[in-house]
Design a protein that fits this description.
Layout lengths: L5 H25 L6 H5 L6 H10 L4 H37 L4 H16 L7 H15 L5 H31 L3 H6 L5 H10 L6 H9 L2 H10 L4 H8 L3 H16 L3 E2 L2 E2 L4 H33 L1 H6 L4 H20 L7 H23 L1 H4 L9 H4 L10 H38 L8
Antiparallel strand pairs: 1-2
Helix pairs in contact: 4-6, 4-17, 4-20, 5-6, 5-7, 6-7, 6-13, 7-11, 7-13, 9-14, 10-14, 13-14, 16-20, 17-20
C-alpha cells in the first residue's frame, strides 16, 4: 500500500482537507440535522474518518512498514522487470547462436542453459519452454520434420523441468536444509510450512499435491522440498502434470517461429499465428487455475488437517534459534521506534521509499520509454544495434539508478539499526535484563 498507492494517498488526504473545509464552514450550518454530534463538533483539518485513519497510522511500526515497502519494490523489479526482460534478450541470443548447429549439440546446450536458469530464483519456467520451442523446432525440422520436432521439444522441455527440480531439491534445498538459519528463515515450524509438508509428503497424484507443485513458484517449492528432506521420486511424479503448461508453452514458441517463415512472399504455416494465440490463452488459463488451486490446497489443509499438522514434531534447533531471534527482533524494534529514530535516519529511510516508489512508477507507467520492445524472435544485432545494454533506454537507466540509491539507503538504515540493537542487547545482558517491546 505504501509503495503502490502513495500518490493516491496524497490525493486522498488533499481531498479530505477540501471536504472538511466545506463541511466545517458551509455544510455544518446548513445541514445540521444530517450530521452526527461528533461530526458537527469536529474542527480538525481532515474529515473525521481520515482523522481516525491518521491516528491509526501513527500506531504503525513505521520503520518496519517503510522497509517492507522498499523490499516489495525490489521484488517487483527483479521478478517483473529485470528477470523477464534480460532473460528474453539472452534467450534470443541463444536462438540466433544455435540455429546452424547439429540437433544433438543444440539439445545439450538447451538442457544445460535451462538447468542453469532453473537454479536462479527469479526465473520462471515458461520463457525456457518458449525458447526450447523456437530453438529445437528451428534446428529439428531439418532432422525430424516440423511436427515431430515440436513433440521432441516438448519432451526435452519436460526433461529440463524434471532435472531442474532435481538440482533445486537436492543440490540447493538438500544442502541448505542442514543450516539452522535457513530452516528458520523458511519458517519450518510455522503452520503454513507444516501444512506444505503434509501436502508434499503424499504419494502419487493427489489433487492438492499437484496443485502446489505445478501452481507454486518453481524455485521456492522445489528448494523447500529439499529443505524438508522429502523423497525426490514422489515429488518428480507429482510434478509430471506440469506438461499441461509445457506443451502449450512449447507450441507458443514454435508457432512464433513458424509464423515468421515465408515462401515466395506467402506464409508457409498460415495456422501458426492462430494456434500460437490459442496456446498463449491456454497458458494463462492453466497458470491461473493451478495458482488458485495451490492457494486453496494450503488453505484447506490448514483447516481440515489440523491434527496431522500438530502431530508433526517441531524442529528443536530452530525453536531455540527462534527464541534468540525474538530477543534480537525486540531489540531492533526498540531502537527503530519512530519517535526515537534520529531525524537523519528518518530522512534516509523516507528517501529510500521515495526513490523506490518513483522507480516502480516509472517502470509501470513509462515502461516503453524505459526499455526497448524486444521478444524472443528479435536479434541483438538488428534490434539493439549489436549491444544488449541498449535494451535499457535513458529513462530506464534513471529508474535503475533510483533503485540502486533506494537499496543503498535502506542498507544504511538497517546497518545503523543493527549496530544500535546489538549495543542495546549487550547493555541489557550486562545489567541482567531482557529487552521488552515498547508500548
Amino acid at each position: 500500500v505504501m509503495l503502490g498507492l502513495s500518490p493516491v494517498l496524497v490525493v486522498y488526504v488533499l481531498l479530505s482537507i477540501v471536504n472538511q473545509f466545506i463541511r466545517r464552514f458551509f455544510i455544518r450550518h446548513i445541514c445540521r440535522e444530517h450530521m452526527t454530534d461528533e461530526e458537527y463538533e469536529h474542527k480538525g483539518v481532515f474529515t473525521l474518518a481520515v482523522d481516525s485513519q491518521i491516528k491509526y497510522y501513527k500506531t504503525w511500526d513505521h520503520a518496519k512498514v517503510l522497509s517492507y515497502a522498499v523490499y516489495w519494490g525490489i521484488a517487483y523489479l527483479f521478478l517483473s522487470v529485470l528477470g523477464s526482460r534480460f532473460v528474453t534478450v539472452f534467450l534470443s541470443w541463444l536462438i540466433e547462436t544455435t540455429q546452424n548447429l547439429h540437433i544433438s549439440l543444440v539439445t545439450g546446450i538447451i538442457v544445460a542453459v535451462g538447468m542453469v536458469l532453473f537454479l536462479l530464483p527469479p526465473i520462471p519456467g515458461i520463457p525456457i519452454y518458449l525458447a526450447g520451442g523456437i530453438v529445437l523446432v528451428n534446428v529439428g525440422r531439418d532432422y525430424f520434420g516440423v511436427y515431430a520436432s515440436i513433440v521432441y521439444a516438448c519432451f526435452v522441455s519436460l526433461i529440463i523441468k524434471l532435472l531442474g527440480c532435481c538440482m533445486q531439491q537436492k543440490l540447493i534445498g538438500g544442502t541448505l536444509g542442514s543450516n539452522i538459519k535457513v530452516r528458520q528463515a523458511v519458517g519450518i515450524n510455522s503452520e503454513g510450512i507444516r501444512a506444505m509438508r503434509v501436502i508434499l509428503s503424499e504419494n502419487g497424484f493427489t489433487r492438492r499435491k499437484v496443485a502446489v507443485l505445478v501452481g507454486g513458484p518453481d524455485w521456492p517449492v522445489s528448494v523447500l522440498c529439499g529443505i524438508l528432506g522429502l523423497n525426490l521420486f514422489p515429488i518428480l511424479v507429482g510434478t509430471l502434470p506440469v506438461a499441461l503448461l509445457i506443451v502449450p508453452s512449447v507450441l507458443s514458441g514454435s508457432c512464433a517461429y513458424l509464423g515468421s517463415l515465408e515462401e515466395d512472399g506467402v506464409e508457409k504455416y498460415p495456422f501458426a499465428d492462430t494456434l500460437g494465440a490459442i496456446s498463449a490463452a491456454f497458458i494463462a488459463g492453466t497458470m491461473l487455475y493451478f495458482t488458485l488451486s495451490a492457494v486453496n490446497a494450503v488453505k484447506d489443509t490448514l483447516e481440515n488437517d489440523k491434527e496431522t499438522i500438530e502431530a508433526i514434531p517441531f524442529d528443536e534447533a530452530v525453536q531455540e534459534a527462534d527464541a534468540e531471534a525474538v530477543k534480537v527482533s525486540e531489540a531492533y524494534h526498540r531502537v527503530t521506534i519512530w519517535k526515537e529514530v534520529p531525524i537523519f535516519m528518518k530522512i534516509v529511510l523516507i528517501l529510500a521509499v521515495l526513490c523506490m516508489t518513483t522507480c516502480c512508477y516509472m517502470l509501470m507507467i513509462f515502461g516503453k520509454r524505459c526499455f526497448k520492445d524486444y521478444d524472443l524472435m528479435y536479434t541483438i544485432d538488428e534490434h539493439l544495434d549489436g549491444n544488449w545494454i541498449n535494451l535499457v533506454l535513458p529513462l530506464g537507466r534513471v529508474a535503475l539508478l533510483l533503485f540502486v540509491i533506494s537499496y543503498a539507503l535502506l542498507l544504511v538504515f538497517e546497518t545503523w539499526a543493527k549496530i544500535k540493537a546489538k549495543a542495546l542487547m549487550e547493555t541489557l545482558d550486562e545489567s541482567g535484563t531482557t529487552p521488552l517491546l515498547s508500548e
